[in-house]
Amino acid sequence: MYTHQKDIKTKGKPLAQTKKALVMVHGRGATAASILTLAQHLAVEDFTLYAPQATNQSWYPYSFMAPVVQNQPALDSALDLLDQTVQGILAEGVASDQIYLLGFSQGACLASEYATRHAQHYGGLLLFTGGLIGQDLNPDNYQGDFKGTPVLITTGDPDPHVPVSRVEETVSIMEAKGAVVTKKIYKGRPHTILQEELDLANQILSGAIGSSTSDTKE
């Protein structure tokens, strides 16, 4: 049973010209069009941008920390739509290491869950305030090898939706699967994206980040 219609917005130069794609996943209550506006702050002039649209503007009904069964069938449908997006890009002859995934909040949770279930050498994962999905995380769900994929993952401390503990769990699982993770925890930060997060994302998009860093901002 599927709950999301296939609706993928695109922006930028044709993929045949760029051979490099950024898949942008919007948050709850937002739209593909709104997440695409984030491109104004990102070094993506040479990327083709893809933004799938969630039906009714939500990828799944409950918190990402709820038991997975409560978020079905919407969650599986959302993951399938993301897979259709990525597979469509691969089918155009683009290598996986030229595919980048970005998400904010619910979109970051979906992007992290999808990428870790299909771990391969991506160009990078930009996970603004998100983490892996489920009340309890089942390592058996996660397949493949990130092969050094650079990952940026962030949250506030506290954040109303994404606890630091889940970000820590997510980092552990991703690193065990070969990701190179930059984790940023921002004390007292509201549920938003800071300029520093955009700057770090741009380092990954431009290929400048390759080493693991982790710290907490006071």
The shape, in one word, is: globular
The value of Rg in angstroms is 16 Å
Oligomer: single chain
Give the topology string: H per helix, E per strand. Answer: EHEHEHEHEEHEHE
Helix content: 25-40%
> Low-confidence stretches at least 5 residues in length (pLDDT < 50)?
211-218
Describe the main β-sheet briefly.
8 strands, mixed
First CA to last CA: what distance?
Answer: 45 Å
Structural class of the helices, strands and pairings?
A: alpha/beta
Please tally the β strands and state the result: 8
What does it look like?
With 218 residues, this protein is an alpha/beta fold. Helix content is 29%, strand content 22%. An 8-stranded mixed β-sheet has the order 1-3-2-4-5-6-7-8, with helices on both faces. Helix 4 links the parallel strand 4 and strand 5. Helix 3 crosses helix 4.
Features:
single chain, 218 residues, alpha/beta, eight-stranded mixed β-sheet, 29% helix
Topology:
Layout: E1 8-12, H1 15-18, E2 21-25, H2 32-36, E3 48-52, H3 74-91, E4 99-104, H4 106-117, E5 124-128, E6 150-157, H5 164-176, E7 180-187, H6 195-205, E8 213-217
Parallel strand pairs: 2-3, 2-4, 4-5, 5-6, 6-7, 7-8
Antiparallel strand pairs: 1-3
Task: Briefly characterize the structure.
The protein has 218 residues and is of the alpha/beta class. It contains six helices and eight strands.
